[in-house]
Input
Amino acid sequence: MRRLALTLLLLVVAPGVAKAAERGIITQLATDHVDITTRFAGQKILIFGALSRPGQVLIKVRSPVQGVALSRKSKYGPFWLNSDKMYIPDAPGLIYLLTSEPVEEMLGEAQRRRYGLTLHHAVARVQAERVPAGMGDWREALIRAKRRDGYYREAVAVHLVRDRLFYADVELPAKIPLGRYEIEIYLIRGGRILSRQLRTVDVRQVRLERWVSDLAHDHPWFFGVTFIALAMALGLVLGIALRRDGES
Amino acid sequence: MEIFLPIAHMDVNLWVILLFGGVVGLLSGLVGVGGGFLITPLLIFIGVPPIVAVATGAAQIVGTSAAGSYAHWRLGNIDFAMAVFLLIGSWTGGSVGVYVARLLHEVGDFGNIVTFLYVGLLGIVGGSMLIESVRAVRGQPAAAGGGGLGARLAGLTARLPLQREFPVSGLRTSLLVPVVLGAAVGVLTSLMGVGGGFIMVPVMIYMLKMPTKVVVGTSLFQLLFTTAVVAALQAGVNHAVDPFLATLLIVGSALGTQWGTRLSVRLPAERLRLVLALVVVIVALKMLADVLVTPQDIYDLSVLRG
Output
């Protein structure tokens, strides 16, 4: 698979390498949309490109924001119970920061902060509606929880081939936020950002799931009554059919 | 096979959910209990948000009690007058419960409340079943404990206002009795996702002294329409009913129930009840353990939309 991809990469990119000299970097995504279906179990997006001169590459993948709730447990007697809950209306759903070298060696603190190129900096701008007492460290908690589930990631995972070609396999978890993903690709040399390119990938919940989830949120009463009537009918039909089957 | 649940917003294994439905259906076919009280904790164990687990549990009961209600209706085992007053109570209690659930969910306490309600309920139900079935397996007669209390309460209800005849059940009692009983069950349905048969049936048999046949038909009938209304409210108010999850559970439990009913003819009833009691107690202990063990991270993240 990888060999095939690289062969394709060379075929696609080689004619364009001359052009790379103009903008410094040429990038290509192997797919421009991801469909989530009932059998969606994680997908790889291959990002590849060419550099006109040797350099370092940083790829930032960012999903649309999502509303999340962060709850905190406290100990009451022997019990660990939820004690506080806060809402973060615009939390980044997924952030992948993939680099060709450790990011600290590529860029200074000021640059990293300005473009949000570490998880810490990317989350620093996120705001919450109301922060309950004792939840001051919520940004760190958000990063921790998201990392654990594979939604936030910082890794040296951009591969350079002979200093001219680069590729990265972005492996997405099975359950990902929907919408338009932004993929920013930075070309860095000598601690300076020389070029920045933006590409987008649409992640859609297709067919039934999308339709069901829209219906349940946009017309909750219609959905509720209809579904319960269907559930009743399904139970009735199953009950009768299976009983008949049992008698024969 | 993994499928994505659009409302619970998570991936689950299709076969695991069918298995859950099947196991609970099997138990209900074998022992004759509803089993709603096992579905909700099982869903919570695999990471379904508590409010979705409770709402979907109610929707699942709609599917599993439909066929039984129809059969009892055909047999004339339903006291409709009684059922109407039960439903007036349970729809009121259920509506209040759904809004209470919403309030608790927004503050973040819903999971805690559900956990303690379940530990308490399953502990009591499982514990008493365990004692009773250990006695039965050993061949000792069942204790006649409930009778005394039931008779005293029956004396009390005779003095309540709004007395009315219920000819199908062959009894005279206050309208307040079914309304209050219904309200209690409605609250349980909205906060725990259970049908409440385990309260309804003993009260009807021991306290109201209704004929057992009518008890089974009437409680099943009211349970069908209580869970139907509560589940519709949960979808309308809390957006918490997951249709894929509910459908899988209904299919699984329909298959399990048939299998269980056939098996039950060949298996000794006392031992079956003992097994069910053990399952219930284990689920209660697991729920209790989950709040006693120090969490890996005191923060917990849940996605609301997107």
Summary: The CA atoms of residues 137 and 271 of chain B lie 7 Å apart. The beta strands of chain B are 2-5, 10-13, 163-166, 171-174, 299-305. The mean pLDDT of chain B is 85.
